[in-house]
Amino acid sequence: MVFDLWLLDKCLSLGIMELSTFPRFFTSVFDRFSVLSLFFVVFALVFDFMKRRKCQNYPPGPRGLPFFGNIFQVNWNSPHLSFAKLWKEYGDVVSVQFGWTNTVILNGYKTLKEALVKKSEDFADRPQFAVYEEIFKMTGEGIVFARYGPWWREQRRFSLSTLRNFGLGKRSLEARILEEAKFLNKQFENAKGLPFDPHISLNNAASNIICSIIFGERFDYQDENFHKFLHYLSEDLALEGGFWGQLLNSFPFIRNLPGPHQKIFKNQWLLVQFIQNIVMRHEELWPPDETRDFIDAFLAEQEKMKHDPKTSFLKSNLLGTAIDLFAAGTESTSTTLRWALLFMVLHPDVQSKVQEEIDSVIGKEKKPALEDREEMPYTNAVIHEIQRAGNIAPISVPHQTYRDTEIMGYTIPKGTMIIPNLSSALFDENVWSTPHQFNPGHFLNSEGSFVRPEDFIPFSAGRRVCLGEQLAKTELFLFFTSMLQQFTFHLPENEPRPNYTESKFGITLSPCPYRLCVKLR
User: Fold this and answer.
1) What pLDDT score was predicted for residue 19?
2) Strand ranges (DSSP E) for 46-162?
3) Is 19 in the same domain as 143?
4) CB atoms inside a 10 Å sphere around CB 179
5) How confident is the model at residue 6 (pLDDT cuts 50, 70, 90)?
């Protein structure tokens, strides 16, 4: 086009072309431009078609838009509800596309078990997410989002053994949780019966347990810097799991464009800085007289393996794993406890029955102990129902196929993103008598004994099962019983009644903000 205009100017200046020939000249240029435009449109559509081609026997799914796929057909404020509709329409194995990312949604316990347990290695990989590429440059892949292979296996083994060394499954951890429960209950008592939002206090309590294991320290409930850190974490998880995070993963080129997604990178950097400062303090005092926490244990292993060129014990991996453990250990327990208190104020009859059992088995003065759980079937059932109905990880963390495989008769190529729809197991109408109601009876038999249906998989399953499952179970029982032993929770007068069906989706599904009051028993 530029050349044509230059040629026109030269022709006019030399008298070669008359003004009367202008229309024909521009018609020629326009025709040439139209042909080029048509070529690029056809090329783009053919390219898009080639990217969307599926192998034979691929799972069924809805037709998507060119280039965008099905990304606009999912409500990213509650994707599990969108996936539930697809499950009803297309069956247990559903294919969708987000941009050009081939994705398969697994529904129902039978399908999830076959993929995550029976064929665990086939489905053990992780996709590469554009939303995490910037933080991975600073921290490495950590452990949650690391690709499946020797590095991941080495770090998972180390993390599990180190967590056990620092109290997981031991009395020392119970004592630590019960001590933190005292601080938490003091916060509730300080409210003096007035309405308050328990979110920040519960966040602080849950994070202090994992902080004591990873960092060797806890943070005061009035520590403003730590509150900011927890705020950045919550905000980042919401953005990463929401629409803008999914859009960025589907179209990585928008990374450098302005928009709400830029807040993700800003928050990630602030989180890294916080962890880096703690690691630096450990390095300044290295070597310690004794191994105090996870960071010390990692640094010791790093020193031991420093001559191994294939080692995964690198400083970047320490930062990534520390962030992963902290985020998982804080958000999951804190969110579940928020659901717990919400369900208790909405179901005061359930709260009363839990308190009766606590009084009968533990009493009002003795501290709860994990061993009490076996004698408290109703309380145990209530905690499990909180996890089921709260549904804090409705679609888990995406997997990726490690090799070509099959699931329920369908062919799934290597590199396909897999979404384990845990909600489909937790709300299956064929398993739970009243799946959309809060009903502790789901976990009790006719004699009132505790039963755990195998479809109950809030922590996922298989090789990528939640690393902190045992820690979370311990925390939930001890925090929950400690709170209800000391207080009765109720709704404030003259305030709207919270609706537990309304929730906020990020990486986790959390209740909308609510306020409650406490009364000392």
Assistant:
1) 46
2) 93-98, 101-106
3) no
4) 14
5) very low
| Contacting residues for 2 by C-beta, under 8 A, at least 6 apart | none
Residue with tokens 């359930």: 350
Shared-domain flag, residues 25 and 111: no
- Give just the sign of the alpha carbon dihedral 296, 301, 306, 311: negative
Same domain, 103 and 250: yes
Query: How many structural domains are present in the chain?
Result: 2
Domain residue limits at 10: 2-52
pLDDT > 90: percent of the chain: 62
Q: How far is the C-alpha of 200 from the C-alpha of 221, rounded, in Å?
A: 8
Between residues 141 and 405, which one has the greater pLDDT? 405
Residue 337 lies in a domain: yes
Query: Is residue 83 a part of any domain in this protein?
Result: yes
The single residue listed with the structure tokens 């003004």 is 19
Task: Please tell me whether 55 is known to bind a ligand.
Answer: no
CA distance 438 to 519: 23
Residue 58 lies in a domain: no
Looking at residue 516, which CATH number applies to its domain? 1.10.630.10
- Return left, alpha or beta for 222; rule: phi > 0 is left, psi -120 to 50 is alpha, else beta: alpha
Beta strands in 117-266 (DSSP E): none
Q: What is the pLDDT of residues 337-386, one digit of tens each?
A: 999 999 999 999 999 999 999 999 999 889 999 999 999 999 999 999 99
pTM flag (> 0.85): yes
Q: How far apart are CA 294 and CA 300, in angstroms?
A: 10
Tell me: do 85 and 174 sit in the same domain.
Answer: yes
pLDDT, tens digit, 9 for 90 and up, residues 116-130: 999 999 999 999 988
Look over the chain and give the mean of its residue pLDDT values, rounded to a whole number.
88
**494 conformational bin, left if phi > 0, alpha if psi -120 to 50, beta if neither:** left
